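Good day; I would like, with your permission, to put a structural problem before you. A protein sequence and the structure tokens that stand for its backbone fold form the material at issue. I would ask you to consider whether the tokens describe a fold that such a sequence might reasonably adopt. I set the record out below, with my sincere thanks for your time.
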Amino acid sequence: MSPIHYLSEDDLISLLKKRDQRAFNYLYDNYSGALYGVVTRIVLHKNYADEVIQDVFVKIWNHVALFNQEKGRLYTWMINIARNTSIDYIKSKSVQNEQKNQSLPDVVNSTETHHYAVMDQVDKIDFIGLNNVLDKLKPDWRRLIEMAYYEGYTQQEIADNLSIPLGTVKTRVRAALLQLRVILNEQQ
């Protein structure tokens, strides 16, 4: 079986729903970098991120039949899977217990050192040009999007962290997402 070199989104979805292994390989080759970027912004630790990205692709493969093209694009659907899987992972009891069981020097050294190393790597490799798009948002809107979608905060946690009402967070996030849609449509 020879590899696939180009597929339209519609063809890719059709083949994935038929459980075509070559289509899955194409999907992985073309989207793993972008999805890994989302995962590393939330998970931060490379070993955990590798585990999470594997879970993400298993979920995509197992649930592709549920994907509805009328509700959005495949890429957006996969980004949401990556984001939600990453958040679920860092909030899991096993990860939280592992972090609690580390000695204080280990926590300080590994978290601080690794955080900066990963952020440097992510900043150097903007997999999908999203930083350029986010730069077009108001700074306070951009911060909300980063906290919600890259750092894994819930809207309540954002409200508490920034000392603003929950309703304000919800309104601003919605406005920011609508503005992002306009920006992305202008770029197409």
Observations:
- Residues 156 and 166 are 6 Å apart (CA to CA).
